[in-house]
Amino acid sequence: MQTIDKFDFSGQKVFVRVDFNVPLDEKFNITDDTRIRAAIPTLKKILSDGGSIIIGSHLGRPKGIDAKYSLKHILPRISELLGVEVSFADDCLGDEAFEKSAALQGGQVLLLENLRFYAAEEGKPRGLKDDASDEEIAAAKKAEKANQKEMAKRLASFATVYVNDAFGTAHRAHASTAIIADYFDANHKLFGYLMQNEIDAVEKVLKNTARPFTAIMGGSKVSSKIDIIENLLTKVDNLIIAGGMTYTFTKALGGNIGKSICEDDKLDLALSLIQKAKDNNVNLVLAVDAKIADNFSNDANTQFVPVNAIPEGWEGLDIGPETEKKFAEVIENSKTILWNGPTGVFEFDNFAGGSKAVGKAIVTATGKGAFSLVGGGDSVACVNKFGIADKMSYVSTGGGALLEFIEGKELPGIKAIRG
Ligand code: AMP
């Protein structure tokens, strides 16, 4: 397999799939350009070798051509960050895109319009009537899959090399993230730096694991984390359960949780996960105390109580000090750490303390040589809020993609390149 470090892009025309799906305000100003910055090293490497670049990305979830989701909004920022005037094609597949791609000289960059303006990118039919028959639905799906192949082939025809640097969409088998790779031989398709770094970080955690390995799973619901927890139970030494999930486990064990968030239909599942942890010799670490509130607000009245003795009318919104200590001890003695999800409602400053304590313990462990990977939505927001992102070994840019990778699934965007 080719690697970006060793590849010489001089004279090559490179289609780079990035994830520039950045948040925009109502005036189309970018409110967080992290995703653009993340792909800059790859783009700069190609340019410094003397290659030219065709950038493909999606933005938002358009249902068709829609100016609101035009990538034109972010063109100036890309030019600024790259230090090169980037040109634009108003459509990603038409003659203009083809001709502008063909005319690119070494060192030049073209941004294509939003790939998701076409249903073929995702390969799923749009606008099916509510009363469509099963046959009509099946025919529409088949047609869109065929369109997807055509789209991938067309995009591939613009370039001599394919680079995938869109980790955020690596779990999708879309035209530009996976299918397109079929139209390049093994020597002309590769991962960008971001994609490679993400893969290396996850593999360091799941495959080449230094022990003890501790995973901290927080967030609101067990239901959204079952597959990950099950996969981790075959890999970790310690599994810390935090956040809203705590109360489903506590109730399953017979505790009183007041009006804390709880999935009553997942009580048996919680018990089976506890049993599985025992069977696998995994140290399952649950909260012992909670910071409770009399309503869901930053200004609620609060108290600390044992996690299984929450009074009626109160709810647990964060872990308590005993739990902070218990979690920190496990974390600080770990050599590999994975953090997904806050320990409480960290968006409210008064309930961010537990997440902050977990973050601090990870910083300490990382300082002592542990490898720490933080990822999956809110934990990234957490480390950013606490100003400790640069003290983690790796902060993932992938939400769903990272979670599916940790669940042990094969990601289409990765398979397409490395087989
Ligand atoms: P997730 O997207 O599943 O990682 O969940 C993250 C969300 O879980 C954050 O918005 C937190 O505010 C929320 N959360 C964490 N702990 C609790 C809790 N004890 N009660 C309600 N929501 C919580």
Question: What does this protein look like?
Answer:
By secondary structure, the protein is of the alpha/beta class. The protein has two domains: 13-196, Phosphoglycerate kinase, N-terminal domain (Rossmann fold, 3-Layer(aba) Sandwich), CATH 3.40.50.1260; 209-406, Phosphoglycerate kinase, N-terminal domain (Rossmann fold, 3-Layer(aba) Sandwich), CATH 3.40.50. The protein has helices spanning 34-49, 75-82, 95-103, 119-122, 134-156, 193-206, 226-232, 245-252, 267-279, 321-332, 353-367, 378-385, 400-406, 412-418, and strands at residues 13-17, 52-56, 87-89, 109-112, 161-164, 189-191, 213-217, 238-241, 256-257, 283-285, 289-293, 302-306, 309-310, 315-319, 336-340, 371-374, 394-395. Strands 3-4-2-1-5-6 form a six-stranded parallel sheet, with helices on both faces. It has a six-stranded parallel sheet with strand order 10-8-7-15-16-17, with helices on both faces. Strands 12-11-14 form a three-stranded antiparallel sheet. α12 (378-385) links the parallel β16 (371-374) and β17 (394-395). It is globular, with a radius of gyration of 24 Å. The termini are close together. The model has no long low-confidence stretch (mean pLDDT 96). Bound molecules: adenosine monophosphate. Adenosine monophosphate binds next to β14.
